[in-house]
Amino acid sequence: MKNLDELQVEEVKANDLEEKNRKEEEEGDEVDEDESMEWDLRNTDSVFSELSELSRDYLDTVDRGASIRGSAEQFEEILAQFEELKVLHELVEPARKALISRVVELTDDRSALTLEVTTLQETVARVEGRLKEKEEEIRRLRRELETCQPVDPDAGLPASMRHFSRSEMARVVMEKNQYKQRLFELQEALRHSQTLRATKVDRFTADKSSSVWKKFNRLFGLSKEPLVPPPTSALVLPASSSLNRSPQGSPKLPTIGKTQAESDGPAGVSPRARRRELYREIRSHVWGTLGKRHIHGWSLPLANTQDYSGEPVPEPKDVPVLVQLRLLDQRDSTAKLNCAVAVTPEISGEATCSVWVVSGPASCSEITVIDPARSNTVLDQFSLPPTAPALCICAVPPVESSAGTVWIGTQEGSILIHQASAGRRRCVRSVCLSEGVHSLTYSNNQVIAGLADGTLAFFSQTSDGWNLQSHAVMPLGANPLQPIRCCLAKGARLWVGYWNKVHIVDTDNKKVEQVLSVSERSEQQVRFLCAGGSGVWTSCRLDPIIRLFDWSTGRPLQEVDFTSFVTKTLGQPYLTLSPLQISSLSIISGRMWVGTGGGAIFSIPLSITSEDISIPYCSSAAVQLSYHGHRQAVRFIIAAPGCLITSPGNSHVTTAQLILSGGEGYINFRIGDDASEEPTEVSQATPQRSERSHMIIWQIPCPSVPSPAL
């Protein structure tokens, strides 16, 4: 019985346990379903969205001690902290990116420096190896030299008998040529001085023989001249005196007898005062010989003067008219004129012609661009690089697609190319040659440069412009070398002055066709070539003679010595200013223009009727002197065609051709130098206004046969 009761009790317990397990399983299933529903309804966007979408049954399962509404302040605090963290994150993120970029940059730099260090270490090692090799080679060569030195044939010879290298021989030859040229110049000056001294002695002898009779004439009243001679400063020739006669009553001879005017006169007299006395003597001679009449500032032809023994000639109708005396506006008042070129409207594309003038001291050059038709108008002014002075200038017309340009050659061998119109100051292209550039000539789409070593350089035009690097070179002769200072182009032929000869060159084949001898003296140098008609006039340095040659055959046709012209028109005192020589030569508008070393300008009409067949002969009877001249050598005489001239009194504009001469100072030979007297305390080194660079500008009054564009 007891066992039965125990079994029943155990059975009831088992049933209770089973019921309890079943309830626990059901509660576990409900919890799993609630958790799965909570997961499905969860929203990660915001806490409010997540709680608002839950059911009330789910909320009841939450702990009843928790209050969602009571935690609103904490929630706002959390949101504020979140905003602060977000702002901090925005500030930190750019800094992080910049730091990463800097780290990458430093890493790259470190890699590059490491590579460079490695390369330098390799270079150092390689250089050290080469240095060791060179040291070994030096030791070897030293041993060989010590071995060969006893057998040197020149070891026991004096220095004057040893062998020289080719470079040393070339240098010695060049120095010898320079000394030889200086010797020729001194010989020329000596011959000139001896001629003047002989004239002075003859005049002194004549005056001495008549001095006794003059004193007796004054003593007995046969002459009205005073017994006491006038002061020596009054050295003025009377109008009726001959060329070689001294002024009466002067106990001293005039200051004629040496090459320079400054070498005569008392020691206390300044060079300006002595030159002023010479200009007074020249003025007296001009008034006495050429008379009062003049034609537009030019003397009458020599045949129409009172002392001329030949037949008179008709007065010319095409005498150039003086239109302007222009003081060149230079930054440096002591600068000297060198050369100039006219840039026509066809070259520049502008409405009128402009003139580029090169001036400056010996170290550098300055370019002044002027309009010759408008007085005191400077279009542009700029300086060239201060490396070497400019020696020549040339205007090059537009070719194919290139615009007109101006080429400038310098003493150091550079050629500078500037635009002819807009942007003149900027050097668009340049090339540096081995020798100095002494002449530039344009011919048949080529620019020919004459160099200091007697070589011609030919620059040609290509589709891309001027080919400056690969230019053709043509030497004219062997030693001794001489600069090429003048060239004349006409068609496919080029006349080149070299020493005392003219080389006729075919510019297409770059060959010398013919060689002409201009002077019999081998030391002479051809300096000027100008063409008119079918002839060419030439002139040599330190030579008063000009010579005419036929263009086609090279046959000599005429020689003209300007010594007689100068002595006739200006008298013997003019020769003391400077040795007589031709300093410029041009043919413009049917006239030959000749500038001398003393500043005088002569003009001679030529017999030109056609530019193809006419021989430009000149007649000494038709020579005219310009009373307007320079105080020193005439540096250039150029033509400026295409200038716009405004007629005085109205606004009518015409196109005319002007002629410009350039030189240092200005002088009117009919007036003299009286207007330039200054106090003795004025410095002699400071140039006066009349001693500064001037240009004299003329205009041809009527059209004549034009000369070829050279």
TrEMBL record:
Residues 161-231 form the RH2 domain. Residues 26-38 have a biased composition (Acidic residues). Residues 10-25 have a biased composition (Basic and acidic residues). Residues 239-249 have a biased composition (Polar residues). It holds the Pfam family WD40_2. It comes from the Eukaryota. The keyword Coiled coil applies. Residues 117-144 form a coiled coil. Keywords: Coiled coil. Residues 1-39, 239-274 are annotated as: Disordered. This is RH2 domain-containing protein. It comes from Xenotaenia resolanae. The lineage of its organism: Eukaryota, Metazoa, Chordata, Craniata, Vertebrata.
